[in-house]
Amino acid sequence: MSDIHGVSARATALATSVRAFIEQAVIPCERATLAHDVEALDALAARLQPLARQAGVWGPRLPSEQGGLGLNWRDAQPVLEQAGRSPLGPIALHCAPPEGPNITTLAELGTPAQCERWLGPLIEGRIRSCFAMTEPAPGAGSDPRMLKTHARRVDGGWVIDGHKWFISGAQGAAVAIVMAATDEGPTFFLVDTTNPGWHHLRTIRSLDAWQQGGHGEISLTSCKVGAHDVLGEVGRALEYAQRRLEPARLAHCMRLIGRAARAMEIAQAYVIERESFGRRLSEQQMVQAHIADSQIDLQAARLMTWQVAARMDAGLPVKQESAMAKVFVSEAISRVVDRAVQLMGAQGIAHDHPVAAFYQELRAFRIYDGASEVHRAAIAQRTLRQQRSGA
Q1: Which of 117, 128, 123, 125 is nearest to 170 (CA)?
Q2: Which of 289, 288, 285, 301 is nearest to 334 (CA)?
Q3: Which letter does DSSP use for residue 141 in this model?
Q4: CB-based burial of residue 52 (10 Å sphere; 0-12 exposed, 13-18 middle, 19+ buried)?
């Protein structure tokens, strides 16, 4: 666990406690049969979250008055990294997506009535939520302006029609934040999933198999909601979505750095013991090169993430910095886990070890929260605009 200048003594101590909790209480619960089993993951969350509360590590980013740790982003970094060592860790600590960014969005935009109905139960972990933006082609994906789901005004509220998919956390969610086009512009709506117009069609099997609630395909058919179910202001959802995504990307980076670091530790333990061609693999220079390159990638990923965290805590804009961090970290940790697989040979591709599952999961990060190609285009465009303006 790397020390990073500026992390408080409290955060350093909490990271140590989280590391112990993950090793002792969470990792022993990992088993291959949990993959894609939404009901089993929910049951495990119900068992692990009270243990996290007892251990004093529950809710790293949740308000202290709600029983959370109330950490700023800089102090959250080492804590979330340790939580992310296991795919079950963020679930146990109640800091797994999409709950974290949804809670922040509700707390920022919600009316007192909306917060009373949904925010308290979400913070306490009594219900789950999902965020419904992505659609099948030709609808919204990396470009939310391609939004096809539409909401029209009716007496007393709105009627939403549309088709969503890859909606993380959808199965078993009690409420959804739905983005829909309106005459005034894209708008957020809170949809109770017991609404007769909300239809959960299926849970999509994907490479990342440990998502609580899975990745759902949803149909909204004549889904009527009240005027009081608009979240924030009508027509401002694109702005709100960007504000939601920047911290969400940052938290993903922190958690998944932990996953990659653990994968490399497993591979390092393997090469220390494994002998081939008359000596241990750890004595082979090519093996040492893989390990060295991985440590460089991990350290660079931590430092880039730390810089975004410091800017967020200072209230500075992070659009450019968070995009660069998301691209670099997602690709760096993919390289680290790929090397871990290579170092372990056949053991690296077998689900007897968690490294194979981590490889699948981290590959997906280069796509969700914005594909690397989309971020690269946006980074370049902002850079060129800045140069043209002489800033």
Answers
A1: 128
A2: 301
A3: S
A4: buried
d(CA 84, CA 337): 14
Could you identify the residue written with the tokens 């680290």? 336
Contacts of 317 (CB under 8 A, 6+ apart): 311
> Smallest Cα–Cα separation from 130: which of 95, 169, 180?
169
Q: Which pLDDT score, from 0 to 100, does residue 1 have? A: 44
Which helix (H) or strand (E) segment holds residue 319: the answer is helix 319-344
**Consecutive H or E run containing 220:** strand 215-226
Within the chain, all domains assigned CATH 2.40.110.10 are found at 129-234
Distance from C-alpha of 159 to C-alpha of 157, rounded to nearest angstrom = 7
What tokens were used for 33?
A: 């049969």
Candidates 193, 242, 241; CA nearest to 220 is 193
Pairing type for strands 150-154 and 157-168 reads antiparallel
CATH number of 129-234: 2.40.110.10
pLDDT tens-digit map of 188-242: 999 999 999 999 999 999 999 999 999 999 999 999 999 999 999 999 999 999 9
CATH number 1.20.140.10 given to 238-389: yes
Angle between helices 319-344 and 372-389 (to 10 degrees): 140
Residues of the chain with CATH 1.10.540.10: 9-96
Residue range 112-133: mean pLDDT, rounded: 96
Residue 89 to residues 4, 58, 111, 388, Cα–Cα distance (Å): 22, 10, 31, 45
Going by C-alpha positions, the residue among 238, 271, 82, 23 that lies closest to residue 146 is 238
Tell me which residue of 83, 377, 112 sits closest to 252, measured CA to CA.
83
Residue whose pair of structure tokens reads 């931590």 in the numeric block: 302
Q: Check if the beta carbon of residue 169 is closer than 8 Å to that of residue 130.
A: yes
Classify domain 9-96 at the CATH topology level: Butyryl-Coa Dehydrogenase, subunit A; domain 1 (1.10.540)
Type and span of the H or E element at 215: strand 215-226
